[in-house]
Amino acid sequence: xxxHRQRHHDPRPLKPGV
Length: 18
Known about the structure:
The protein is mostly helical and 18 residues long. It is built from one helix and no strands.
């Protein structure tokens, strides 16, 4: 989904500890 795709695109963690 877009959430996972953005996580892969942006190396900065969106959530602490993730």
